[in-house]
Amino acid sequence: MISNLAPTSSAKLNSADSDLSGVRILCVDDHPELLKFIRTFLTSKGAIVKACASASEAIETLKNEHFDVLVSDQSMPPGPDGFDLAHALREMESEDPSRKPTPSIMLSGDSMRPSRKRRFADFQVYLPKPIDTKRLVHILGRLAEADSEAVECGSLDSWEALQATDAAVVATDVAATATAAAAEATAAAADATTAAFIATASAETATVTAANAEMAAIAASAKAPPQLR
Fold it and tell me: Residue 107, exposed/middle/buried by CB under 10 A (0-12, 13-18, 19+)?
């Protein structure tokens, strides 16, 4: 739970008049044209905007600068994505108690689609693309004014732990299936061994029976009258 999101005094504003004067915003998107549009638009509303073309660049920027709000794209291949960026920011805040928490907004074409990773992410607001600029300005204003509103954040670590748990469950299922297959193979081998034993016993019985028949024939021949030999 993150609270005490007070912006600097210069960032105070009245969200009703769509004025973002003095609000420091970090915008991150790997699409140059969209990033330029967002930066130009927010600057026209009075915001102080820093633009980064990747999550990695944004993480380095956050190590040296503080912003009132972070606005980030979700997917930025091939490097870290928006979730990784927000998580890195939360780690910085956790390691430095004096650092003022920065609320964050995710912009994505998939932002409204259910996601297990989203469940544990460190964003406060999710907005779909194409961007509703009026709504974006209003939300930026509300987040910049969030003096002591409690903002609940998840943890990417929790999501990764869940992924590992799911993988372990799958591995366990595979192992159980393999064990069952091995048990069936063992049972089949035992059945084959039993069948072989029975076949061997039957062969031995047939051999004894044949030997007995041969001995009986010899004995009968010995007892037969000479004229019948």
Answer: buried
